[in-house]
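Two proteins, back to back. First:
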Amino acid sequence: MDGRLMSIERSIKALVSHAGAAEPVYLQMTLMEPYVTKRNPVPVLFQLPNKLQSLLEREVCLVVRDPQQSVVDVLEKKGAPTEDLFKEIISVKKLKNRVRSKKQLDEFFKSFDLVVCDEKVSHLLPEILGAHFYKSGKNMPIPIKMAKPESPKNSVDPKYVKYQLKAINHSTALALTPGTCLSCLVGYTDMDTDRLVRNYQAIQKKLLEKFNGSKPKLTIRKIHVKTPESASLPTYP
């Protein structure tokens, strides 16, 4: 067995044995120096071998252009592929009015475990939602297209929207922030350990390729696995 995989397995098994049920498991990466100089409002998505949960089990919010009803009528139409997909569809204007205070923003943040937005309004959201939503990448709004590029202007295609949501649900998001510590969710402690290890191994490999690659100067200093309350256990180098 590859030495790096053995290190990942040992660390994850040790972590799970001391963790509570259904705790999130994060890959935490420490860089030699900041990878970006300012926060990128669009997260980087990495596909996972094993999805974290069923799409229908997730509390999904979609932020759209005004007026929202034209989008709601199409996506929530009886029989549409997206009929039961979203917990809420909200327009930019209504979102802005809803999160005027820190308390309101916290309530909104806790209401969903996935936030997506029409790519045409994504540039407006950092000012409305602030750093709270962009801190860890957990609920960082992920832009989607409302229809295929060749579709007429302002089209809404439920089938294409669901296709993108399924791809996002099979991925994890990495928020690129100016600091030297970045993290992304790879699973939960109640997952089958082998599935959790495969997720972690796949993401670590992709991160090493993206950040180190063939550069003469390595970017990644070390990688650890952890839960929100646990100590960090090393998996690289």
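And the second protein:
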Amino acid sequence: MMRIGYQGIPGAYSEAATIAFVREQLHVEIDDERLEIISYDDFKPMVDDLVAEKVDRIVMPIENSTTGLIARTMDIIRYQPVLAKYEHYQPVNHVLWGLPGADIHQVTKVYSHPEALTQCKLLFDRYPNMDPVAYIDTAVSAEFIVQEDDPTIAAIASPRAGDLHGLQALEPAAYDESGNMTRFLVFERYDNIDMTNTHDKIMLYIETPHEPGALAKLLQVLDVYRINLEGLNARPIPMKPFRYGFFIEADPSNMIGDLESLEKILKALSTHIQVVAQFKQNR
């Protein structure tokens, strides 16, 4: 039995990403008796279950094309014995949903996940009568307005979430940018990475000594090895105020040398290093 976890409820973008991963990467249909898809209320219990071998894989959103790094998910992955081996790009087509018969001009509050609200700022410019209200999740927001049965409240959620709850689309294209996408990584329990594989992308989390030029030295090493830097994000180190670690995403396909020697040098220049991901680019 293959057990795969995602955060949210049916209709969440994470569910859509999980279904797409199962079909496109595992070549399995979601009703296959060998597969169990498990939904979680939050990300931390999902990661804990992966580490405890209660699930085999988890699907985590890590970045949005409009708002950037999803910091709270990446922070949970730090210091955990997990490794991402797949990525998936999920289209994010936000819809403004209301109760059947609702009038968009009468809506005063719009519920959704904070990320989704940020991705729909122009909607609130067009309708100043609406106030954004941060809520747990996009799909849960759709469920919430059904429970409240109030035509003056609405939710921003996926097309599937609104359809599941029998809602009315008040604004079918609520998003600011067409082509908005969220990138997901599929994590497994940590296994040794393939040091001979320079074709797949890699993601590292690194903490450096608190001294001048520490990060610059790391980046110079990547330059010497001719590794293409594709992402660099700083995150506060827990229990160390105003100290930062760095998520580094890189493409080693044109590198000079090998990953094993690179890792040795990076370890010598850092106080902590974690291989977060090694995966084929899925775009």
